[in-house]
Amino acid sequence: MSGVGAQLARKLQVAELSSRIFGNVFNPTGARQGNYILRQGFRGEHMVRYYPSPQDQNMVKLPRLSRLLGDKLVDPDEIDRLNALDRLRARGKGAPKKGEGKRAAIKKKR
User: Fold this and answer.
1) Residue 33: CB partners within 8 Å, gap ≥ 6?
2) What is the pLDDT, as a whole number, of residue 43?
3) Distance between CA 46 and CA 28 in Å, rounded?
4) Rounded distance, CA 54 to CA 12, Å?
């Protein structure tokens, strides 16, 4: 039996030496130590750079930008949408005014 204990002790010594050589953590019991969290870099600096500051957020808002830039700011998708709505209204297919939809017409009949 002493041979088995000696082999186990020798394996532990080799594992400890190996972990020291290769810079790994020696953990013979397998206890959770959280080293994977400690190896990760700090997130605070990266998050501060990723998310814009409140002043930058205010600059990006469209009404503020349109006031600053005037007519220079043009959204082609919005222009296309408005043109399509104008064409529908010209054919009488546009959205009804508020309070003049299908439900309002049903209520008026009663």
Assistant:
1) 25, 27
2) 78
3) 35
4) 55
pTM > 0.70: no
Phi, psi at 46, each rounded to 5° = -65, -40
Task: Give dist(CA 75, CA 72) in Å, integer.
Answer: 10
Q: Could you give the maximum distance between any two Cα atoms of the chain, in Å?
A: 101
Amino acid found at 16: E
Q: Which two tokens stand for residue 55?
A: 């002043």
What is the predicted pLDDT for the residue at 30?
A: 84
Average pLDDT of adjacent 10-residue blocks, the chain of 110 residues: 84 94 89 81 78 71 67 79 93 85 74
Angle at 59 between CA 58 and CA 61, to 5 degrees: 70
